[in-house]
């Protein structure tokens, strides 16, 4: 792009903004666009942010991406968007004017999603400042305690940062008081009009209740955590007996970063699909209005086809997400919903169905505001979408000189169920801390809420070692492999895996 192109781009960005806000009814935080060279884009991708802490993993990833870019594949993402205030979008300086317009339109889709979707409402909009200031402190820690000690704690934080609970605001004491009040109510003795002729004396009842409440409170004080928690990092920060303040500071920052990424991970298909749906709407409008030359429409079509490329081995969120939004728009425009539609089995009628409802964009915005990928897939992925977009499962078959992909026997409905189930936890296993003082020895015990997907044992063992290094006492994880219980233990002697042996898993009992 030359200087003239940049001047055009400024005017086109204003038009893109007006289309997004006035015609597509989007609500967007302010956006700042930066045009950067490839090496800067590689750095932002590797560090996950334009400002982040220093860590060996980021340097490793940067060298890997740079090697791929320079020696294997010169293709890079057209943009990177940061959900902050104002939102920051980074564009490649190698993009053409037409591609920059596509990218800007795509960015408006993302920022509208960040702004309007309820799961992002508590996101740290100061994330760049948070990480930049943290990096300064962490460099001081490196000088004082040594880079190896700092890296060790950062590795712990990275391993556990997605095992968080962004929506739990209760402290352990607040939970304890809540449960105490609940248990007291369960033990309340109601008065009776016949109490004067029963053997129960009022003073005796009050005494029994008081003794019960004292015992209950003592037991609750000794129960940790007060109820199972998925927020492993929060529990370790608050309860580890070996962490120093500087180490807790590092883990707090990385937990905040994990909470920042939580809604991004949980809405990836919705978000990328929505941004793709938006950029297609805006680009078509720019071409219709003559803001972009029809001579460059082929360039847009080609770039868009790369974004929405079909793959046999994995799902493309840009393709699948946008196809689902298009399907919602079509169905709600034509009234393909409700009992009349569901109870119509005439194929000809279904094909010609059009009630002229015109509620497609309204429905899309309503869904966009409140869903995550799991519920999105559950409610709006249909067998027809699976079939029309060839989302079937394929297995590689070695044919000697070539690998062919052969479709499995799963039906469209089978594939839909498999896809929906795969989004249940967004690839993050549900692990809960159930006892931080197991056997009254300070042993850290957690359980995998098994839903049919086994843990990667190699990854689990390394993570258990990280927990042990942060906790300082033995750590136990209960999971499953097939139908067998699996116990993973990490202590001073290393990590061990036992199959078919499970420590006593009986939960604490409260007086009732």
Structural overview:
It comes from viral metagenome. Residues 8-424 form the SpoVR protein-like N-terminal domain. The protein has helices at 3-23, 38-47, 56-72, 97-116, 127-145, 147-160, 172-186, 202-221, 232-239, 245-266, 268-288, 297-307, 317-334, 338-342, 347-352, 360-370, 373-380, 383-388, 412-422, 457-471; strands spanning 31-36, 79-82, 87-92, 394-398, 403-407, 431-438, 443-448, 475-481, 484-491, 494-499. By secondary structure, the chain is of the alpha+beta class. It folds into 5 domains: 3-117 and 267-304, no CATH class; 127-168 and 229-264; 172-221; 311-419, no CATH class; 431-499, no CATH class. A hairpin with a 4-residue loop joins β4 and β5. α1 crosses α11. 29% of the residues are buried. Residues 505-512 have low confidence and may be disordered.
Computed CA radius of gyration, to the nearest angstrom: 28 Å
Number of domains: 5
Q: How do the strands line up in the largest sheet?
A: 6-7-8-9-10
Write the element-wise H/E pattern from the N-terminal end onward. HEHHEEHHHHHHHHHHHHHHHEEHEEHEEE
For the largest beta-sheet, the strand count, sense and barrel status come to:
5 strands, mixed
Number of strands: 10
Which stretches are poorly predicted, pLDDT < 50 over at least 5 residues? 505-512
InterPro entries: Spore_V_R (IPR007390), SpoVR-like_C (IPR057008), SpoVR_N (IPR056174)
Domain SpoVR-like C-terminal: 429-480
Domain SpoVR protein-like N-terminal: 8-424
Protein name: Putative SpoVR family protein
